Amino acid sequence: MTTNKKRLAAFDMDGTLLNDKKEITPKTEKVLKELQKQGVELAFITGRVYVSPYYYAKVHGLNLMIAATNGSHVADENGNMIYEAKLDKETVNKVLDLLKNTGFYFHLYPIDGLITSEENQTNPLSEIKGRMPEGYEDKMRRVILPYEELYNIDDDIYKIIIITDDNEARLKFRELLDREGIFNSSSWHNNIEITSSKGTKKYGIESMIEKLGITWDDVWAFGDNENDLPMLQLAGHPFIMGNATDEIKKASKATVVGDNDDEGVANALIKEFNLNC
């Protein structure tokens, strides 16, 4: 049933909207398009760089808003930027200083791809799959530079992601970042994400709320990890995936739905909006 009241449904991608093969299933696509027919505004709100959700939307014929790099770069349905919170150069360089000799894989996110160091290419974590929908891999810019040249790049940087399977070292590095006053979060068990403190999903959705003239009560938000908490704790209709950890489920205070690999988002939307899909 359609309504004149504006509503926003916002979806994290990895571990939430996408299945474990990094796909939007046909059923999920059908549900999203049915929501749009009912007048519900849709948004991807993801830690991914903007070019990735942009092409996912293009492939699936979805016209929606995108909050990329955890909400530090937000664009409307036409690709017009409505909010940004870049990392300042001093913070980027400070993080580069701290990362030296750690052995962690990392890359920097400008708007259209990733930038990393030559030294990172020997790291087994350097080839991360599933950033782009199949057939669009060449649309993401990849820049590989000697470490010292990373200090001199001209690109605006929206996020730095650090990946390591050494959990103890990861947690210690997060403590170091905290002591240095560098805002950080996490979207997976083996990563650290560094953005501006105003580059979170809370601020990303707030920019959409302002554009649409609605409130947090009119937001349906779906997520699965720590970086989703800022939006889940404010949304009027928060949902946490069944595949999230118990710690995140408790912190989110959200309704638990099915797993991402079992179309948990689609099934929850069918029930919430009484869809005939």
Question: Quick summary of this structure?
Answer:
The chain is α/β, with parallel strands linked by helices. It is built from nine helices and 13 strands. The two termini are 13 Å apart.
Q: What does it look like?
A:
The mean pLDDT is 94. The strands form three sheets. This protein has an eight-stranded mixed beta sheet with strand order 5-4-3-2-1-11-12-13, sandwiched between helices. Strands 6-9-10 form a three-stranded antiparallel beta sheet, with no helix packed on it. A two-stranded parallel sheet has the order 7-8. Helices cover 30% and strands 21% of the residues. With 277 residues, the protein is an alpha/beta fold. It is globular and about 55 Å long. α8 links the parallel β12 and β13.
Query: N-to-C terminal Cα separation, in Å?
Result: 13 Å
Quantity of strands, as a count: 13
In the CATH hierarchy, the architecture of the largest domain is: 3-Layer(aba) Sandwich
State the CATH class of the largest domain: Alpha Beta
Question: What are the low-pLDDT stretches, counting only 5+ consecutive residues below 50?
Answer: none
Helix content: 25-40%
Q: Within the largest sheet, what's the order of strands? A: 5-4-3-2-1-11-12-13
Protein name: Cof subfamily protein (Haloacid dehalogenase superfamily)/HAD superfamily hydrolase (TIGR01484 family)
Pfam family, one: Hydrolase_3
GO molecular function: magnesium ion binding; phosphatase activity
Organism: Ezakiella coagulans
Which labels suit this protein?
277 residues; alpha/beta; Rossmann fold; Hypothetical Protein, Haloacid Dehalogenase-like Hydrolase, Chain: A, domain 2; 2 domains; 8-stranded mixed beta sheet; 3-stranded antiparallel beta sheet; 9 helices; globular; HAD-like_sf; HAD_sf; magnesium ion binding; Cof subfamily protein (Haloacid dehalogenase superfamily)/HAD superfamily hydrolase (TIGR01484 family)
